[in-house]
Amino acid sequence: MIAVRRKAGAWALWIGLLVVMPATAADLIENVEGVYAARQLRHTPFDPRAAEHLTPAESRFLEALFSVTDEAGLLNANVNRWFRSDGTGGLHAVDYRDRMDALRVRLGGLETPNRVLSVRDLISESLTLQLGFVNDWYAASDAGAPFESQLTDEYAYHEGLHRSHRLILKAFAELRALFPEIGESSQMAFLDHLRAMDLK
Description:
- There is one protein chain.
- The protein is an all-alpha fold and 200 residues long.
- The chain is built from seven helices and no strands.
- Helix 3 (56-84) packs parallel to helix 5 (117-142), helix 3 packs parallel to helix 7 (184-197) and helix 5 packs antiparallel against helix 6.
- The chain is elongated.
């Protein structure tokens, strides 16, 4: 009885780690707006014209960075739908891997001012960890093993997923520290774009 309860608790915690999607909507989310709506997230778009105290190079970088984080959010939402629908909808994990690899290359190629290099690197590492999480999930599924076999303990803890989340929070903290004088709307945009890419 205790073992059954512990297993049920682990299952519930594992589900809690995943992006929450409606059970009836297993098709692809077509655009970034759909991700924000499906996850019930606030969406404050980053507007470089309204972002005072940024150099033109910083504005261009942040605009491109948040385009990448939004695209990552779209990939994450759709691969989650694929897993949750048992492969009948969403984005196949193999396609996810190819697109995420391309996205990481794109991120690495962004013209990045020196003072925001650490932010780019944090996001890059976070994307790598998310890819590892999905690869582990897919490896278990492909082998016919329960996903729990890829977790570090029975309480559904996947280190890569949690590290990715912590790196996203750190990237936001760094942006706030780098640009303390930026307007409230831009601060909200920083947070909203980063939350959209989070798998936790």
